[in-house]
Structure formats: structure tokens, C-alpha cells
Specification:
Mean pLDDT: 88
Bound molecules: 2-acetamido-2-deoxy-beta-D-glucopyranose, manganese (II) ion
Helix content: 25-40%
Number of helices: 14
Number of domains: 3
Radius of gyration: 29 Å
EC number: 2.4.1.-
Organism: Muntiacus muntjak
Protein name: Polypeptide N-acetylgalactosaminyltransferase
Number of strands: 22
Pfam families: Glycos_transf_2, Ricin_B_lectin
Low-confidence stretches: 24-51
Strand content: 15-25%
Structural class: alpha+beta
CATH topology of the largest domain: Spore Coat Polysaccharide Biosynthesis Protein SpsA, Chain A
InterPro entries: GalNAc-T, Glyco_trans_2-like, Nucleotide-diphossugar_trans, Ricin_B-like_lectins, Ricin_B_lectin
Shape: elongated
Length: 499
């Protein structure tokens, strides 16, 4: 219970800061329309002065005064005069500084001193990022809303390039480059302009290299905004009316998770544009683990949110998520009729359009021959990624028919992929490893012969084979022989089979 109460405090603090940030930004956004001659921005150092400066000296900031050993006798004598430590009292300045020990409200009194109007809005109970942002947005007045996580730090000139894009086209939603603030030392490190937002089959947001086609579209000019398939979620600016028009957030989602992909798909599918503005930099503390507890468990909440995301926006491609996450279809996702109504009202495009036009290098293939297990005809074993990581060997194991680690897709580009990893062979006779899919064919190109049932690695001209005696848990690759151990069955699993 103590831990829970502690978490609530942590969360409440974070939410307060989110909202504080937001209103600070709303001011800036409004000010963009102000007279040029009006001073813009906060005069550094002036506003951010601490409430009370700690001073050097005995007893300052309410610290105890320690009398040295040699004066202890004299101290005891003096104590008798007033029945308190007169010697200590004499040593302390008449106007000594004291810490602010008030129980609450320091934040409110602090923001009152700021030279810009800042409103602190508190949620009465823990309601999560999505509903807190909706509340902040609802009371905002500026033309542009900027959302920033509580653990962000802005650099000089971060805002103007964001606002300029929205001014140019109000349906453009913009993110800064997210610089890295070390969670350990708070060192500030510039983020890369060469990565953009994507997602994997599990619907986790991931950074991937900006593809060549996007470099070409910008004619190699790295100062131009990058069109990104998804946003990380914590930091973005959006026209306030447009935010309403496209349906803010899905209020049926709880706490956190999936909302960033939901707004990303919605922006693109419903006629907007999502960009990373490379001239704008904001720092963010990336955490290695979430500090919060989730009511009912992290998995439950995120699975529910992701189901809503998949059911409303992903059409038949939701199966990639369901097949790699067995059990997830048991999670109740509530009522999505109003979100489906929104999609209909805004005449949003299908997910296949998004994959084709916005994210052709997506981890979800637009066209594919199979999505399911890959089974060896002789041994009846199945390829299995064994939950191994990038750069490790792909495994082979008894087929369990449950999806998850045994789900592979043979794509129209002739890759064999499991999520964002592709089977790759760089040496004659193997091994067969799993590398990040690079879309360049090369060592990731496989030819499946649906009659002979062989999977031939094109570059080496060798065939995928069963496990060898030396290692019974990895498939091998050898000269093609036509043997049954080189025959593989590729098929589509259907959902009822795995749930
Ligand atoms: C107390 O007064 C001294 C002398 O006027 C001054 O130097 C010092 O800054 C004051 N301390 C505080 C905490 O105001
Ligand atoms: C598997 O499903 C995909 C997508 O519906 C389809 O294009 C493909 O032909 C199917 N493959 C097999 C082997 O049934
Ligand atoms: Mn964050």
C-alpha cells in the first residue's frame, strides 16, 4: 500500500508538470501572434531564481549548529543563562535563511511569480496521461497546443520552427527532435535527425533509420522536416482546432500506451501530416523502466489500448499484432463505436493506404505470401525465434501452434521475417541469423518454390535445411539436394487456431 501511495504521488507530480509545461507553452503559442516589439521569451535567470537562496554560515537554511569540542565547557555554562544553547544562538545570523517547509502549494506560489500567465490544473484522481492531456487541452486558449512530458528541457529556438510549420499548414502535426537527457547524470546529448518513428508487430513504438526515399524527397537537405510514420508521443505541437477536428485522443484508452500510434495513424489516414522538425530540439529523460504501477497490471492496460488501436485503425493488418501476441484477444477493449464513427465521419483512408504511401518500409508487409508457422516436412519442427535478439541465430523447435515466437511472414519482397527481424545468411553453410530487415534484398532474399517446397537463399544458392546433430535447436543451410529435410510448409494461420 505504501508503494501504491508513493506511486500516486509520483504520478500526480508528473501530471502537474505536464500541465504546467503545457500552459507555459500555450503562452508562447499565443505570443506568436503578438506584436513583434513585445519581448518574447523568458529573460533567462530572472524568472527562474529559486524561492530562497541558501547562504553560507552557521545555522543557515535551518541547519544545526555544532559546537567544537574545545568550546563545550563554555557552551554548558552559557546554556544555564537562558536554558537554551545561547552560544549557538549567538553564532546564527539574525536574519538566517530557512527552508520552505510548507506542506503543499509551493508550485502554485512559484508560478505566480512567473512573468507569463501559467495555470496549474490538477486532476482530482489518477487518470493517466491521455485524460490529463484532454483536460489541459479543453481549458487551453492558445491557437497551438504543445504537449511536453514532465521530464523535458527546451533548447534555444525550439518553438519557432514548430509553429512555422503549423502556420504553413494547420493540418501539420509536428514533433521536435528529441534529444537525450541521461537518466543517470542528466548529461544533454543531441538526438539524431537520421531516425524516425515506426512500430513493430507488437505495436511497440520504435525508432528506425530514415529511409533513402525520404532523404530523396528532401533532396538531401537535412534541415527540411522529416515525414514520420509515427510519433513517440511525449512531445508535439498541434493546431488547437485541428486537434478537436481529428478527434483529440481516444478517451476510452487508459493511463498510457498505444495513444501515440493511435494519433499517428489517425493523422495520416484522415488527411493530416506528421513531421519531425529537425531544426527544433527538446531534451527528454528516457527511462529504462516505467516508475508507475498500472491498475490491473501494465499488460492489461497496454493490451486494451493496443486492441482499440488495432480494431479501429488497422483493418485486416491487426492480425500481425494478434498472432504475435497470443492471448491478447482475451482482453476486453470496451466500446469503440464512437471511434469507428469518427473514422467514418472523417472519411479516413484504409490502413493499406497508409502502409503503401506513408510507410512502405513498415515492419508489417503490405503484401505477403504467408503469415504463420514455417514447418519442416521431415521433422515436423517449426522455425522459432526462441525470443532471441537481433544478430542471434534463428531457432527451430517442436511446433506449438500458438503463434508468438513461431510466427514468420514470407513477404512479397521475398524476405522471411519475424517482426522486424529478417533471416539473413552471410556465409556459405550458415549460420542463419536474424538481422534488422534492410529492404535491400541482398543476404535477406529467399526464393520459395511452392511446388518443390524449398526455401532457397538466393545469394548463396543454398537451401534451408533441418537442424543438424551438432545443434538441434537451429536450422542449417546447405547445398540444395531435394531431400525432405529441405522441404517447408508455409501457411497462413487463422486466428481461431491460436486462441
Ligand atoms: C542577512 O543580512 C546580511 C547583512 O545585511 C546580508 O548580507 C545577508 O544576505 C542577509 N541574509 C539573508 C538570508 O537575507
Ligand atoms: C495468406 O494471406 C494473404 C493475405 O490475405 C494472401 O495474400 C496470401 O495469398 C495467403 N497465402 C496463402 C498461402 O494462403
Ligand atoms: Mn517521457
Amino acid at each position: 500500500m505504501r508503494k501504491f501511495a508513493y506511486c500516486k504521488v509520483v504520478l500526480a507530480t508528473s501530471l502537474i508538470w505536464v500541465l504546467l509545461d503545457m500552459f507555459l507553452l500555450l503562452y508562447f503559442s499565443e505570443c506568436n501572434k503578438c506584436d513583434e516589439k513585445k519581448e518574447r521569451g523568458l529573460p533567462a535567470g530572472d524568472v527562474l531564481e529559486p524561492v530562497q537562496k541558501p547562504h553560507e554560515g552557521p545555522g543557515e537554511m535551518g541547519k544545526p549548529v555544532v559546537i567544537p569540542k574545545e568550546d563545550q565547557e563554555k557552551m554548558k555554562e552559557m546554556f544555564k543563562i537562558n536554558q537554551f544553547n545561547l552560544m549557538a544562538s549567538e553564532m546564527i545570523a539574525l536574519n538566517r535563511s530557512l527552508p520552505d517547509v510548507r506542506l503543499e502549494g509551493p508550485l502554485e506560489s512559484y508560478v505566480k511569480k512567473l512573468k507569463v500567465p501559467v495555470h496549474v490544473i490538477r486532476m482530482e484522481q489518477r487518470s493517466g496521461l491521455i485524460r490529463a492531456r484532454l483536460k489541459g487541452a479543453a481549458v487551453s486558449k492558445g491557437q497551438v497546443i504543445t504537449f511536453l512530458d514532465a521530464h523535458c528541457e527546451c533548447t534555444v529556438g525550439w518553438l519557432e520552427p514548430l509553429l512555422a510549420r503549423i502556420k504553413h499548414d494547420r493540418k501539420t502535426v509536428v514533433c521536435p527532435i528529441i534529444d537525450v537527457i541521461s537518466d543517470d547524470t542528466f548529461e544533454y546529448m543531441a538526438g539524431s535527425d537520421m531516425t524516425y518513428g515506426g512500430f513493430n508487430w507488437k505495436l511497440n513504438f520504435r525508432w528506425y533509420p530514415v529511409p533513402q526515399r525520404e532523404m530523396d524527397r528532401r533532396k538531401g537537405d537535412r534541415t527540411l522536416p522529416v515525414r514520420t510514420p509515427t510519433m513517440a508521443g511525449g512531445l508535439f505541437s498541434i493546431d488547437r482546432d485541428y486537434f478537436q477536428e481529428i478527434g483529440t485522443y481516444d478517451a476510452g484508452m487508459d493511463i498510457w500506451g498505444g495513444e501515440n500510434l493511435e494519433i499517428s495513424f489517425r493523422i495520416w489516414q484522415c488527411g493530416g501530416t506528421l513531421e519531425i522538425v529537425t531544426c527544433s530540439h527538446v531534451g527528454h529523460v528516457f527511462r529504462k523502466a516505467t516508475p508507475y504501477t498500472f491498475p490491473g497490471g501494465t499488460g492489461q492496460i497496454i493490451n486494451k489500448n493496443n486492441r482499440r488501436l488495432a480494431e479501429v485503425w488497422m483493418d485486416e493488418f491487426k492480425n500481425f499484432f494478434y498472432i504475435i501476441s497470443p492471448g491478447v484477444t482475451k482482453v476486453d477493449y470496451g466500446d469503440i463505436s464512437s471511434r469507428l464513427g469518427l473514422r467514418h465521419k472523417l472519411q479516413c483512408r484504409p490502413f493499406s493506404w497508409y502502409l503503401e504511401n506513408i510507410y512502405p518500409d513498415s515492419q508489417i508487409p503490405r503484401h505477403y505470401f504467408s503469415l504463420g508457422e514455417i514447418r519442416n516436412v521431415e521433422t515436423n519442427q517449426c522455425l522459432d525465434n526462441m525470443a532471441r535478439k537481433e544478430n542471434e541465430k534463428v531457432g527451430i523447435f517442436n511446433c506449438h501452434g500458438m503463434g508468438g515466437n513461431q510466427v514468420f511472414s514470407y513477404t512479397a519482397n521475398k524476405e522471411i521475417r519475424t517482426d522486424d527481424l529478417c533471416l539473413d545468411v552471410s556465409k556459405l553453410n550458415g549460420p542463419v541469423t536474424m538481422l534488422k530487415c534492410h529492404h535491400l534484398k541482398g543476404n535477406q532474399l529467399w526464393e520459395y518454390d511452392p511446388v518443390k517446397l524449398t526455401l532457397q537463399h538466393v545469394n548463396s544458392n543454398q537451401c534451408l535445411d533441418k537442424a543438424t546433430d551438432e545443434d538441434s535447436q537451429v536450422p542449417s543451410i546447405r547445398d540444395c539436394s531435394g531431400s525432405r529435410s529441405q522441404q517447408w510448409l508455409l501457411r497462413n494461420v487463422t486466428l481461431p487456431e491460436i486462441f
